[in-house]
Task: structure prediction
Amino acid sequence: MLQTVVRIHPKDNVAVALKPLKAGEQFTFGDLTVTIKEDIEQGHKFALCDLPENTNIIKYGTVIGHTTKPVSEGMHVHVENIKTNLGELLDYTYEPVTFDQPAAEGRTFNGFVRKNGDVGIRNEIWIIPTVGCVNNIVQKVERESQSLIKGSISGIHAFTHAYGCSQMGDDQENTRTILSDLIKHPNAGGVLVLGLGCENSNIDVLKPYIGEYDPERIRFVVAQQHENEFEACMEQMRELVEIVSKDERTECPASMLKVGLKCGGSDGMSGITANPVVGRFSDLLVADGGTTILCEVPEMFGAETQLMNRAKDEIVFHKTVDLINNFKQYFQRNNQTIYENPSPGNKAGGISTLEDKSNGCVQKSGSAAVSDVLEYGQRVKEHGLNLLSTPGNDLVAATGEAAAGCQMVLFTTGRGTPFATAVPTVKIATNSRLANMKKNWIDLNAGRAVEDSSIDEMGEELYDLVIEIANGKKCRAEENGFHDIAIFKQGVTL
Result:
């Protein structure tokens, strides 16, 4: 049934327009009747009662900021009259909560089981440069290798980046760690690593980060050691194609799936439709023994206690506290304001403060217990819901999820974006307008959760889609040929 407005939680003193509203329209919330005093755009908030100056604004049942001037009932509540309550570092107390979880469904998918036991949902060959100096060469190898594709190979992709040299400290470590994670990713049945030869993160330096590997499947070329580095690469590619093309899919339990949870270009509908739908999916996959990873630490600020109190034990609680405070300290070290996060697009879509954005963002995590907390570049070890340290930047965060072992990323958006990372990046629209306008970008319209469906029904539909994509169905970004990576950079460039 099509809804027009929603009061998300009984404690809320604002409601959200699910379609554009006109001044004079009236809506009833229990015993409360509210008359809209001005036009309200979709995804934007309006006051359910008169709100004096310095009144806390409550949405999702929690405080998302305070009024900076009086706001009358039925008036627009947004950046012109609301400000964040967030400050600096905080102390936290573990107050564990648990929620009922769905029953296991016992789903399966057909994946590519690798020699080390990992499972890929694609059988691709990846070409990875150790340094940006050889980007043009790997792109040429990618182009020339397309004609070699055969058998079960689903794609040959090069992942260029600007790093691998002229870096120091954590930046250099990030580059080496992320590249080694991708080199061993199960979606790649074979990998060609191209180095220049004189870079800081050359192949000999990188190999200890990679650890044990299958030399049949992972090949190395050092450009400075060959008269014609392109032909040396193509020779390795032809050999890899012969091996990888023979791989076959086999039935695997859903417990082998690792799925990243990400949002970008959020709007006021994100926390009402797409993010709760993804959260429902996450609970369903976790119930089947699978793994989901929530990233974007700055978009946990203001909603972090929800995650902390779902930690499975005190060890994970303290790791979550460190996750939040360490990222706040990163902002402070760079003399940046911790809470200045919503983008112009976020604000245009109805998001007013970081707390507003964060409480919508964490809906993607569902209600399962937090099993573990991962550092940037760390591979996932624990089944269940994991938290990953990344910034909010879409491509950096999604690349971090792929490097952690995710075979797929679910990406919710209210404004729309075409980007994709190294693994299938599934776009989920928060509203029907976007889904209908950008059909070449969007894989699922979660706006239907307030039109002709429900969060629970859409969660099951999303699970169906995830299984289809795991079985080989291409998402829109794959159909468009979009794939890219970005590595987190924090420090000095030499």
